[in-house]
## 1
Amino acid sequence: MIDLSLLNKNAIVCGSTQGIGKSIAIELAELGANVTLVARNEEALKIVLAELDKSKNQKHQYLVADFSDSLHVKFKANEYALQNSIDILVNNTGGPPAGAIVDAEINSFMAAYQSHLLCNHALVQAFLPSMKKNNWGRIINIISTSVKQPLKGLGVSNATRAAVAGWAKTLSFEVAKYGITVNNVLPGATKTVRLENIINSKAAKTNNQIEEIEAEMLAEIPAGRFGNPEEVAALTAFLASPAAAYINGQSIAVDGGRTMAF
């Protein structure tokens, strides 16, 4: 029988007050994990915390951290790690603003690398010791299908996501001997606030109706619809489970078949 139980496992889920991150936190809790929510908005964290399943006597909590400052995240994570053992780390942060790469300012790249690559690295360094000690761990990065096929109009995002994918693949080589896996989940066009912002931005720049932009995007998706955050969460939960112990160093798209690359 497939083992998806996360009972007695401790999970950290970043960016978990809305969208994909929130859905992942809910799914992991339903599988029995003790979930620690991470985001910068404490009031929003409290709201999501109250929604998490506790039917298996799980103990959930939250951590306030601002991912625009990797040193702040490093401090908060190290402080948390002194009192808590972590089995599952889900790195998830909102993507950089849309725009052509030729128009991007240097500061835009710096900010994106701060909130994605550097914060991911700080979190891994904080929580890896407990994973090694337990000889069990799951590190899952929510990135983008752009690591397989760059997306037009998302220049800074494409560059940043590729850096995270390279970092994750390298990390997967180094930690596998400790029973730790590192994998990337690549959401396609998913019904989130970010997708709404991208559509609205395209509509404003092209003077087209929002419905026209949506139709153009849907025409590229064989499934004929946008994804739901819960569908991304389902794959993430599987990769976090004991059943996925031999899946390591992979980047898996959840995009309705849109990505053309293998």
## 2
Amino acid sequence: MFRLGFIINPLAGIGGSVALKGSDGEEVVAEALLKGAELRAPNRALRAIQVVADNISAEDMLFVTFPGPMGEDVVRQCGFDPQIVGDIDVTATTPEDTEHAAKMMSEMGLDIILFVGGDGTARNICNAIPEGQPVLGIPAGVKMHSGVYAITPEAAGELICRLVRGELVDIRQQEVRDIDEEAFRQGKVRARYYGDLLVPEEGQFMQHVKSGGREVEAFVLQDIAATLIEEMEDDFLYIVGPGSTTRGLMDELGLDNTLLGVDLIKNHQLLASDVTEADIEQAIAETDGRVKIIITPIGGQGHLLGRGNQQLTPSIIRQVGRENLIVIATKTKITELNGRPLLVDSNDPALDKLLAGYIPVTTGYRDRILYPLS
């Protein structure tokens, strides 16, 4: 029988939709809840475990998990009868609970520990387990720099199914990286290496470590920006996603730029900076449908939606429409993907399927390529 440890950080990603750029710390969580943020991790956990439930018999595997929101609720909802270990305050889980769960499960000699969270959660897991304990992450956080996560919850579920069926799945060490959230909120990226975790190595299912710290060519960014400015339509709302590539547009317009948040512009003027999901919804309601989103993929990973721009919720993306997504990237950034597609993980699987296919990417002055989006 395959024995799987399962840990959910229920608060992972709670700060994303309200533009807090992270979820670490009680004050941030309290602020996110005050702003109306909803829990993101439980639903993403459910999506992964449902894949397992649809393909694997309960007699073939044992879930070992912590009580209530840290795993038990989702596992039971999917029809499994888990072994419950540990003791927590179900109304206020903590990073220490995550570390305690990981340590306890590693000492039980489980086949793999499946966890739900972001880079902070990966750090907790890394702190708690010994070298050689296999793990796999279900992505649910705001910051997703580490290479220990599947590209989507469903991909994580499929990997578990392959392991349970005894298929050959390679494993290797992948980096755990996290950033200083306070610096991040001030527009500074200070990524730090915290260690390695042993994870399944299946390229089509696992995300890559985010690349960063390398300057892109200023002239290319100016060329991309010049094309966008020429093509901007009067009285349209433009939702500008995070990243140094989109910052090139803001620089050419002479506008302040959040860099790591989402900004709104109209008629070449800045309407609002570092906006939340609610801010965007309100702005869209005032546009009479004249709205576009300008976004760029994360270097090295290729994620276009669902990593660092959770303010762009499925509701917002559906209102804007695929045809009004303006994707920009340097050819260097695209080349570094080595043929891998751009990725969407919007937290709405049906929407992800609608978005899939080939999409135009502006790569220079009046220069575009068609590139796959998966």
## 3
Amino acid sequence: MAQLTALVAVAVAILAFGLVSRRAQAGILTPPLAFVAFGMVLGPIGFDLVGYDLEHGIIHALAELTLVLVLFTDASRIDLAVVRRQHDLPVRMLVIGLPLTVAAGAVVGLVLFPEMGLWHVAALAAVLAPTDAALAQSVVGHPKVPPRIRQALNIESGLNDGIALPVVLILASLAAVEAGAGEGGRSGLDWAQFVALQIVLGPLVGIAVGWLGGGLVQRAAKAGWVDGSFLKLSALGLALLAFAGAELVHGNGFIAAFCAGLAMGNTARDVCPRLHEFGETEGQLLALLTFLVFGVAMVPEAIAHMSWPVIAYALLSLTVIRMIPVALSLVGSKLMAPSILFLGWFGPRGLASILFALLVLEKLMIESGPLLTVVVTTVTLSVLLHGLTAAPLSAMYGRACERMSKMAPGAAEDRPVTEMPLRISMADQ
């Protein structure tokens, strides 16, 4: 009976938001914000209709499937040749800003959580470094925000989760050694070999699956052998093949999924738009269910262990820990101050941070301590603050850009760029 009640509650949540989704997304109510709120209402801090603890198998299964699909589809949207030619802003933010964000997060973590240890706070910082443009879709889809700026955020969020993942694995492994955790008392050398196998074999398997499998799908599609529905489903098949294949040879399946998407997106681009259609529907459903489970099971856990250092770190993570590294990475870009502030603020933390935190705690067997509490608090505040500010600040910034363009024609913000698909399509809004 409890399972049926949970199913009914989830179905009602999906239907209820679906009925008002177009109007809601045009305002301040983003889908992640709505589903986190649904989860909190349905969970133990609300009506207690749905109850999952963090050890429940469905949470980890949902998290793993969602992460595999998100990594694959995000990477497949990125045309690396175009990025190299036109999109220097996200390259700066990834190559310079991302490492500085991890370093800044580790320094702040050592100050606020000295008991955690260096590698533990560094792992926390890496988990919170990736951004999720879906939490601020009014930004990446706003017609008045210059394409170069919104595409910088779009490309950054599409690549930084895959780039951050090996860093997360390495730092979490070091944290496990630091804490004396691990399988059978693994030594530091054992962990080093473990990580090396994962970050070498994972990319190799992923590239092979993306290149060979993507090419096979593209040739079959051109020959007219593939039904449209199965062409979309091939995205899931390739993502899961890369994940499972890498795990079979002791590589990391998540890194493999990301590399498979990147390889396919750059060698079989003709079929990518159809694959993205799958990600827009089934992928979005998995993501929103993850946010709902996040509200049911993870937010109450974080509230129970809330403290002032946790809140302080979460607020700093969303502001100075992100904004100062972004500003430093954009030195010399000729962007005006409002644009640098805009890019710095809109680095929402979402799916990747949630899923990376679960991955760290499950796969690498380190004690959660405040790590999970800090991650959940940061993501919750991000869902709320970035969701509420996305539409009004985008409109305000768009008007400012129009004034800047009139005052200074040829501004760096107005440089034309090729646009790439967004995780959440805005075409019908």
